[in-house]
Structures are given as C-alpha cells and as structure tokens.
Amino acid sequence: MFVGIYCILQSDVRNLFEMLETLNLGSLSLGSISLLGLGSLSRVVAGVIIILIMRMTFKKIFHSKPDPLAVQGDLGERSLRQCLENLPEPKRILYHVYLPAGENQTTEVDLILIHETGIYVFESKNYSGYIKGKARNPKWVQISEHSASQSSADTWKASKGRKCRRRTFYNPIMQNEGHIRALRKVLRKYTGFHDFYSIIVFGDSCRLGRIRTKNPHTFVVNRRFVTKLCYRLMRRGTLLYRENQIDEIASVLAEYVNVNRKIQRKHVRDIRRRYGDSIT
Question: Where are the domains of the chain?
C-alpha cells in the first residue's frame, strides 16, 4: 500500500520529507519512525492523504476525457444551428430546452424553431454509416464499418465480406413525439395541436434507408436538406403567429433553457436508466 502511494506521489512525498526534516522531525525510515511522536506521525499520514486526494481531484478535473458521443452530438447540433440561422424572419431559435415530462422527469429538446408558420422541433443525430428503421418500430439500426476498438459482440459480416458493426438505438421519431407532447403541455395556451413539425436530422456522413412516415408533419432527412425542407414548409404553411406571439412563446420556453447542472445531470441519469446508451 505504502509503495503504491509512493509511486503516485513521488515528488510530493519527497517534498514532504524535506519539509519534515527542516522541522527537525527526522527521517521517516523504519528505524527512526518510532522516534516520532504519535501526533507528528498522524500529521504525516494526514498530509499524505490530503496530497493524494488533491492529486486525484485535479487529475479528474483537468485530465478527464470528454464523451466522444457527446462531442459528436455537439458538433452536429452546431452545424444544424447554422442551417436554421439562415431561415427567414421572424423567428426565434432555442437550444437544449429541458421540459417537464411526468413526475420528477424531464425531456431535452435539441433545437426549437418558432416561426410564424409553426413550431419546428428538431432531434439531431450526428451518426455515420447506414441507418434503417420504421416509423413505429421502437428500435432503429445503425450499421457502420467495424474497427478493432469496438466490441466483437456487435460485429457481423456484411454481404460484401467486410466486417461491420450493428448498433440499435431508440426510434428518434418516437423520441421527438415525446418532446412535442411535453411542448404541447407547456404551450397549451398559445398553440394548436397541429402547429408542430417534427424533423429528425441525421449527419451528412450517413446514408438513410427508406424511412416512411405517415404523419405529414414528420420528416427524416440528412442535415444538408434541412434548409430546403424548412423553406418548402414555410412557403406552403399557414401564418399562425404574429411576431409578438412568437416572442411570447419564446419567453415562455426561455425559463426551461438555462437550467442548473443538477437538473442536467439528473436528466442524463434518468435517460440512461430507462434506455441505457441507446439515446444520444
């Protein structure tokens, strides 16, 4: 145990010994440790423990690696924001909206665009590979080329002989339907049932299978088609809100944007408990 502590705290322990020598407490060799008083020895042990805790804390803060899926998701959402910024006014855009969803539960909406033609609710999936699924199937499939770092349990051989990784994830159409249900409850005084559009956005590096949606307000597209899709919906749509109404809806939702970290961490724990890592 003491050897392990010494290996971790090489320089710090050496400095501690030098400090003790300057205080005339002697060396900490086995032959002289009995010469130290009980109070001095307890102070030495306490000092070593404090240094160990401090080193572990700073290592966790400054050297922890970010979650690659979270980083990938942030990049996708940032690119989606740029697409939405180019859309015509009047509009308001909100990011990472944490809405109440049942008892002590929250649901996070990636992006919301409030426009005079309706409320556009975006679920961003910055995935690569091939995506397939059906509108009412709870699980969709992502198929990507296999790398040595990935688990062999998720690996299968494609028809062309290449090793691929097959991963299932929660149906994003159903996921976004939950977001819209939460939005309808919060905005019931301001919106009608058919004021919402559900748009599932996948990264441009992935290929989408034929995903058919029967709901005329639900769409699954690659990110490069988002601007064109929104322009088309806005040209065909009915004017539902005046600019002051858009501002009023945005102000109602604004209180669900800047939530504290405690709520954010609880949301992540709840998602992982319900779905594992299948929602990202």
Answer: 2-63, 68-275
Cα–Cα distance, 106 to 96 (Å, whole number)? 12
Give dist(CA 86, CA 83) in Å, integer.
6
Q: Which residue spans within the chain are E strands per DSSP?
A: 91-100, 106-115, 118-125, 129-132, 139-145, 155-157, 163-170, 196-202, 206-208, 218-222
**Secondary structure element (H or E) that encloses residue 186, with its range:** helix 172-186
Q: Could you give the 3-state DSSP secondary structure of residue 242?
A: coil
Rg over alpha carbons for the chain, rounded to the nearest Å, is: 27
Predicted pLDDT at 36: 46
Distance of alpha carbon 168 from alpha carbon 166, whole angstroms: 7
CA distance 81 to 95: 9
pLDDT tens string 107-130: 999 999 999 999 999 999 989 899
Percent of the chain with pLDDT over 70: 63
Averaged confidence pLDDT in the chain: 77
- The tokens for 11 are 């320089």
DSSP designation for 260: -
What is the pTM (predicted TM-score) of this model? 0.67
**Sheet strand arrangement including 91-100:** 91-100, 106-115, 118-125, 196-202, 218-222
